Amino acid sequence: MSREQLVVQQARTAFLTGRSKPLDFRAQQLKNLKRFVTERQKEITDALKMDLNKSENGSKLYELLSLEGEVNLALSKLSEWASPRPVAKNLLTISDEVYIQPQPLGVVLIIGAWNYPIAVTLQPLVGAIAAGNAVVIKPSEICVHTAKVMELLALYLDPEMYPVVTGGVPETQELLKQRFDHIFYTGNSSVGKLVMEAAARHLTPVTLELGGKSPCYIDKDCDIKIACRRITWGKYVNCGQTCIAPDYILCEPSIQNRVVEEIRNCIKEFYTDDPKTFSDYGRIINQRHFKRIMALIGDSTVAIGGDNDESECYIGPTVLKDVTPESKVMQEEIFGPLLPIVPVNGLNEAIKFINEKEKPLVLYAFSSNNKVIKRLIAETSSGGFLANDCLVHFTIIDLPFGGVGNSGIGHYHGKHTFDQLSHLRSCLIKKLSMERVNQMRYPPHTREKLRWARILLLKQVNISRWRHLAQAAMLAALAAFLVQRFLR
């Protein structure tokens, strides 16, 4: 038996004890997770510095703050999320208990990514714990130091219920051979397909948080200076290694040079004249990705940057102008600090360009014209849409975060994670009385029975609108009377 198989088996055995079901247990584990982040903050930020050259404050801002918010929300809403959820009834079931009961799925596998290795691994874990699942946690092996820190979770969480499995591709492949009740993967679409294929062997549902080329349309009539300031921030955070970073700009040729100059000014303001020595400018994760990103420049025209140092995996903030759809940089997700500008002749051409490609994780649009924004929402499809800013929709915990089509399957954040990693069980509890009410469904099926079935089944009643249970009881009595009166 492999180590991975043994870990999964132990997690399932722990889950079957039922100890993760009580809300007190879940709340305590969430508090312990929060304590891990607090007590190990120095180890976490040091590891992120070594893996991605993230500054201490940058790591706190982009990795730990959102995680803290997820834990706080889950602790405050846990009882509400886990409670039975009443639904509207029809007149035939007016006296019955009808509700949705969230239940744990079982054993969940979370495979994290390397670009935000703490946030994208532990945020889904928050929802999985809150939902009462056991979880096998697989951090990315590319972030060696951060994965090592993640092993310390065993000192805070139930080690059988929430084991951490480190290692590379062989360990991940072995995990994917095992049967899980849900797999949550964050990464690229190529690996996402392999995860989905492995899950299909066990009919295991998946959440795939992928990515793709997220477009950014700039309307010529908007405030270009502010637009470029926000785009520059969104693109070069984490050295462009962000799944929701603006991948490329679409704008009319008449404003392209202005866009270039405004971005140039913002790069200097944010990262100084020498980003390489600036503490808040990161590095490419490894030399393989460095070479991949540099090769994407191809024969494109470099308008800003292009400076690089392979020994440090450094690529400066770079803008490419007059990029064509056929350019190499437009054939795959960049995931680095290259920002191509593709000239288009207005909104219609931009919409056509977007719709001819795979559906992106997010679509950005900058415009002062609400009609432009509404058209982009109505005539395109993407996991998310954000007008006049970048990235910040990720900070809204009540918004579901996820892709569509090639950019992902499923969504998470806050209650959405809880629901994604729960079985929402339909429950109806009927009494063994008032049998006369059921007469309409028993043969022989007459026209009169059909008429009253239509009345009793199609009339929806939301009990929450009734102030007193007595009123609901009166409705039930009325339904019974009608049936007895007309079906005798």
From the structure above, extract its key features.
Aldehyde Dehydrogenase, Chain A, domain 1, Aldehyde Dehydrogenase, Chain A, domain 2, 43% helix, 16% strand, single chain, 7-stranded mixed sheet, alpha/beta, 19 strands
Spans of 5+ residues with little confidence (pLDDT < 50)?
Answer: none
CATH class of the largest domain: Alpha Beta
Q: What is the CA–CA distance across the termini?
A: 66 Å
Percentage of residues in strands: 15-25%
Number of individual domains: 3
- Class derived from helix and strand content: alpha/beta
Structural overview:
The protein is α/β, with parallel strands linked by helices and about 500 residues long. Helix content is about 45%, strand content about 15%. The chain contains 16 helices and 19 strands. α3 packs across α4 (about 55-80), α3 (about 40-50) packs antiparallel against α6 and α15 packs antiparallel against α16. The protein starts with a helix and ends with a helix. The mean pLDDT is about 95.
